[in-house]
Write a structure and sequence with these properties.
The chain has about 375 residues and is α/β, with parallel strands linked by helices. It is built from 12 helices and 12 strands. The strands form 3 sheets. It has a 7-stranded mixed β-sheet, with helices on both faces. Strands 9-10-12 form a 3-stranded antiparallel β-sheet. A two-stranded parallel sheet has the order 1-11. Helix 6 links the parallel strand 5 and strand 6. Helix 1 packs antiparallel against helix 8, helix 3 packs parallel to helix 4 and helix 8 crosses helix 12. The longest helix is centred in the C-terminal third of the chain and has 39 residues. Bound molecules: pyridoxal-5'-phosphate.
Length: about 375
């Protein structure tokens, strides 16, 4: 990618060479099926268990509370459908700006939407007022994939704990932490969650690798039936390379997270400062304080983001309008609309997400390019 400034890390991150190295043997000499009965297969099973324990470590969970999945979408579906299929008369709450992989499965059931405030944080009072006796699940993302705002999970957990008293039905709390793994604390009991989605493709691990933390005592119905792997919750021959890659990636990003978050916060501040002095008409969307350190989300009033993206690409800068998953969608982003932005403003907005390779020089070049286009 020489000469290219890649600012779309919320869509995909390159696999760390150390992760790739950890995965490689499981495509060749260690190809065995983890359920087979000979010694080399037992050793592969050990590697899977080690990966499970490695993921559990960073979540402060028990290894048997980690279910490996093929990415974040599947983990979100398992959490939501796994609960809701058991309670046909129950309802669930989601924030208005969840990822489609939460909104769509939730939409198969009685889904109620929690409002989001203009700064891109959940309206806690709206949440409190909407939990009723039939609510069995609340799903609130840890950090938003478009505007990068970090959600008040501990406060959500407190409200849920309060509402749980004197109830017959369970009331579970799920969080989609797909975008949080690089920079935030994932300790599930500190956060107070019952289920958490982890996504390897966003943390310098392989795509289609992921996990769902399922707290002991939470009952789920499987989405996929078969040989009973992953405690019966996700049948199918295990993707050992994917699990090993996920665990290795999580270990690397969580070990470095504070140093990398501090470095990116400085770049984020530099970007905002340069932008404000060179392009005063630009609006920065979402809370600056409760924000992932790699996320920059801007509105360039009067501009069309599709055109801006093409022009940025011609200048060697790869960025996004909205999330990659809805990039082919003509509709303005549901995330921006949930903050109260009108269609024209949403269509004039860009998401730039930095990563390990981003430098102060790249930030300067990007602001300069935006100034030339604006
Ligand atoms: C917040 C969030 N959740 C879930 C997903 C889905 O992940 P995947 O497409 O890897 O299954 C994404 C991907 O962009 C995401 O940003």
């Amino acid at each position: 990618m020489a000469g290219v400034i890649y600012l779309d890390h919320a869509a995909a991150t390159p696999v760390d060479p150390r992760v790739l190295k950890a995965m490689q043997p499981f495509f060749s000499e260690r190809f065995f099926n983890a359920s087979a009965t000979y010694l080399p297969a037992f050793k592969v099973r050990d590697a899977l268990n080690e990966a499970r324990a490695g993921v559990a470590h960073w979540l402060g969970a028990k290894p048997n509370e980690i279910i490996f999945t093929a990415g974040g979408t599947e983990a979100n579906n398992l959490a939501i459908q796994g609960v809701m299929r058991q309670f046909p008369d129950g309802n669930m709450l989601v924030s208005a700006f969840e990822h489609e992989s939460v909104l769509e499965p939730a939409g198969q059931y009685d889904r109620r939407v929690i409002k989001v405030l203009a700064d891109g944080r959940l309206d806690l009072e709206d949440l409190r007022s909407k939990i009723d006796d039939k609510t069995v699940l609340v799903s609130v993302m840890y950090a938003n994939n478009e505007i990068g705002t970090i959600q008040p999970l501990r406060e959500v957990a407190r409200i849920i704990a309060d509402k749980r008293r004197n109830r017959k039905l369970p009331l579970y709390f799920h969080t989609d932490a797909a975008q949080a793994g690089n920079y935030l604390d994932l300790h599930v009991s500190r956060l107070g969650v019952d289920m958490m989605t982890i996504n390897g493709g966003k943390i310098y691990g392989p795509k289609q690798s992921g996990a769902l933390f399922v707290k002991t005592g939470v009952k789920l119905e499987p989405l996929v039936y078969g040989g009973g792997q992953e405690r019966g919750l996700r049948s199918g021959t295990e993707n050992i390379a994917g699990a090993v890659g996920l665990a290795a990636a999580l270990n690397l990003v969580q070990t470095d997270r504070q140093v990398e978050a501090t470095r990116l916060k400085q770049l984020q501040n530099q970007f905002f400062k340069e932008l404000e002095s060179r392009l005063p008409a630009v609006v920065i969307n979402g809370s600056r304080r409760f924000r992932l350190p790699n996320n920059l989300h801007l509105t360039l009033p009067g501009h069309d983001n599709e055109r801006l993206l093409l022009e940025l690409e011609q200048a060697g800068i790869l960025a996004a309008a909205g999330s990659a998953c809805s990039a082919s969608n003509e509709l303005p982003s549901h995330v921006l609309k949930s903050l109260g932005l009108d269609d024209a403003t949403a269509r004039a907005s860009l998401r730039l997400t930095m990563g390990r390779q981003t430098t102060p020089v790249m930030v300067r070049q990007t602001v300069k390019a935006l100034q030339e286009l604006a």
